From TrEMBL:
Its EC number is 1.14.11.20. Residues 212-314 form the Fe2OG dioxygenase domain. Keywords: Iron, Metal-binding, Oxidoreductase. Pfam families: 2OG-FeII_Oxy, DIOX_N. It is an enzyme of class 1 (oxidoreductase). This is 1-aminocyclopropane-1-carboxylate oxidase-like protein. Belongs to the iron/ascorbate-dependent oxidoreductase family. InterPro entries: DIOX_N (IPR026992), IPNS-like_FE2OG_OXY (IPR044861), IPNS-like_sf (IPR027443), Oxoglu/Fe-dep_dioxygenase_dom (IPR005123). SUPFAM superfamilies: Clavaminate synthase-like. It comes from Medicago truncatula.
Length: 365
């Protein structure tokens, strides 16, 4: 299965082709609607060096949150222990009985689908803009002109925090559910950061007090069916630039996690949400928690819908510096990263694009 090369091609040769695709403002869905049978070469990816682990016994941890209100401290510590182990080994886990109604999850996926299947002219109002103050944007590949190869997907993205979203900035077809879902995810994330703080041996509010729950960005992907999935990727190998990511995916699947140099499928489970550590949390925990690389394979079945909620203020202006937490450092565990702001990290991640390498290496001491 393909994924990107680690070396960037001579983009001069493909610039005009990419520009022409960009200017349609119709995205990958526009190609599919046009009846494309062979995908354009700008979507062709180089073969990946890692094996795919078929029929593997490895399954990412599933953590049941139904007893979180139980006063028995042993139950609470049991949940903290499971989260700690998952974050140190996998960097990924699934949560069930997380408190977000199934009806909300289903309506959120439906809302994303409704937006992406709007008339192209109607969607163009939200097309990619350099205005960082816009709450809702639509685009295809954010790294269109810098990536070695494009991904077979379209995306809408919106800021849900720290600024209170203006409902009028959101398309009517997904406005109410997006704002409602964002509130649910913020509540879940705030609780998860308490567990993560305790898993680090710190007070429950530690990560929240550092500002880890300050920002929330919803990135809603639409992966159309692909006529030649073996030649391209839905999303290239990458780790997330956030502190934490909460992912909702539909029944189609395609998400894979790199574990022990093998690609492991994350099988969709009804009602479950996937949680993964982001780069910024690996940085401030000085590698105790792992921000693990993952990808999405292209598929002849589609469209696939996913909603990734990133706990990050993204490109919004920031001055607060984040580095490895002093509480976790010692002579035997010195700082491994230099400090950065969230905005600078996000800007570096965006400029680098999904080129198959981790943005974290740029900040290593």
């Amino acid at each position: 299965m393909g994924t990107t090369n680690t070396t960037k091609p001579n983009l001069d040769s493909t610039f005009n082709e990419r520009k022409a695709f960009d200017e349609t403002k119709a995205g990958v869905k526009g190609l599919v609607d046009g009846g494309v049978e062979k995908i354009p070469s700008l979507f062709h990816h180089q073969p990946d060096k890692y094996e795919i682990a078929y029929n593997t016994s490895h399954v990412i941890p599933v953590i049941d949150l139904k007893d979180i209100d139980n006063k028995d401290p042993s139950i609470h510590q049991g949940i903290v222990g499971k989260i700690k182990e998952a974050c140190e080994t996998w960097g990924f886990f699934q949560v069930v009985n997380h408190g977000i109604p199934l009806s909300v999850l289903e309506e959120m996926k439906d809302g994303v689908k409704r937006f992406h299947e709007m008339d192209t002219d109607a969607k163009k109002e939200y097309f990619y803009t350099k205005d960082r103050n816009k709450s809702f944007i639509y685009k295809s590949n954010f790294d269109l002109y810098s990536s070695p190869a494009l991904n077979w997907r379209d995306t809408c993205a919106c800021y849900l925090a720290p600024d209170t979203p203006k409902p009028q900035d959101f398309p009517v077809v997904c406005r109410d559910i997006t704002l409602e879902y964002g509130k649910h995810v913020m509540n879940l994330g705030t609780m998860l950061f308490e567990f993560l703080s305790e898993a680090l041996g710190l007070k429950p509010n530690h990560l929240k007090d550092m500002g880890c729950t300050e920002g929330l960005i919803a990135v809603c992907h639409y992966y159309p069916s692909c006529p030649e999935p073996e030649l391209t990727m839905g999303t290239t190998k990458h780790s997330d630039h956030s502190f934490l990511t909460v992912l909702l995916q539909d029944h189609i699947g395609g998400l894979q996690v790199l574990y022990e140099d093998k690609w492991i499928d994350i099988t969709p489970a009804t009602g479950a949400l996937i949680v993964n550590i982001g780069d910024l949390l690996q940085l401030i925990t000085n590698d105790k928690f792992k921000s693990v690389e993952h990808r999405v394979v292209a598929n002849q079945v589609g469209p696939r819908i996913s909603v990734a909620c990133f706990f990050s203020t993204g490109l919004r202006p920031s001055s607060k510096l984040y580095g490895p937490m002093k509480e976790l450092l010692s002579e035997k565990n010195p700082s491994k990263y230099r400090e950065t702001t969230v905005a600078d990290y996000a800007a570096y991640f965006k400029a680098k694009g999904l080129d198959g390498t981790s943005a974290l290496t740029h900040y290593k001491i």
